[in-house]
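cron nightly-structures :: item 1 of 1
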Amino acid sequence: MRFVNRFGFIPLVIFVMIQCTFNAAWEEIDKLKGKVDKDEAKSQLLNAVNMKSSTCNSYFQPDFNLAYTKTLTGNACYSVGNEFNEKKEMRTCESAYKFVDKKNLDNCIEEVYTLPCNAFRNGVYASMKIPVFPTCVSAFHTDPSLNYL
């Protein structure tokens, strides 16, 4: 018994149980706010990328597929500059980013549709080291630079 109290095992177990409860509650709140599940949002983005790249010359199509892959690479929860405070928010970072705001998703998809086909070669985004859709990176809370070599 002394071991349990000495190392704070009981408070740790209680904290984990509370965290799990709050995660579930926050996820229900996010659903009620009209946010889109991240898997559904990824599917919508992939559909938009496929539609857009199909309208482009075959020379530019791989650019859009690569940008899609890189956009969804890396979890912002593990970024160096991540300012998410799990204790303050009473939920895990992964739980907070499990849903995508509908408005942000719409802006992300609009960005994909309005990009010119040559955007990653000699257009708007040609100077980027990693081809991504910037609006989508912020919508999905990803960090493509985490896995960049």
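cron nightly-structures :: done
The chain has one domain: 2-147.
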